[in-house]
Design brief:
There is one protein chain. The protein has helices spanning about 5-15, 25-30, 35-50, 65-85, 95-100, 105-115, 140-145; strands at about 20, 50-55, 60. It has about 150 residues and is mainly α. The chain has a 3-stranded antiparallel beta sheet. It is elongated, with a radius of gyration of 15 Å.
Length: about 150
């Protein structure tokens, strides 16, 4: 999974509501790109089996896609917590740094950060940090909790 693919999945995760999906238009706005670029990537993601796409109705994560998205959100939010709590970054300045790092940490590194921080449940902005166990839930259950 490339960082770009991970970012698409994370954006779908963030935009998904109770129904567990979002529109390609909303995705284009979120990612600051064109609807044509979104459609092309969504087709690619569907071939990889991480999203389901129904033209004119939207896109939703498959269980595999939801696992990846949840992992990326967890990485991001743990990194934000680490950067503020351990390195003294302000909550307003951590997003971009965490955005760069989230794609490159291992599961072991993730576990060590979580343990070092006392397994926090929220990031510095008050958003919930997904649990590893949530990767076992159905996608709509994960997404409706964000």
């Amino acid at each position: 999974m490339t960082p770009a693919v991970q970012d698409y999945l994370k954006a779908i995760y963030a935009l998904s509501g109770e129904e567990g999906g979002t529109t390609t238009t909303a995705l284009a706005r979120r990612l600051h790109t064109t609807p044509a670029a979104i459609t092309k990537m969504v087709k690619h993601l569907a071939i990889q089996g991480v999203v389901e796409h129904e033209p004119y109705y939207g896109v939703r994560l498959t269980p595999a896609g939801a696992d990846i998205a949840s992992e990326m959100v967890r990485h991001h939010r743990l990194l934000e917590r680490y950067l503020t709590d351990m390195l003294g970054y302000s909550p307003e300045s951590v997003h971009d740094e965490a955005e760069r790092l989230e794609h490159h940490i291992s599961e072991e590194f993730e576990d060590r950060i979580a343990e070092l921080l006392g397994n926090p449940t929220v990031d510095p902005h008050g958003r919930p940090i997904p649990l590893k166990a949530e990767r076992e839930l159905a996608p709509f259950q994960r997404m409706s909790r964000k």
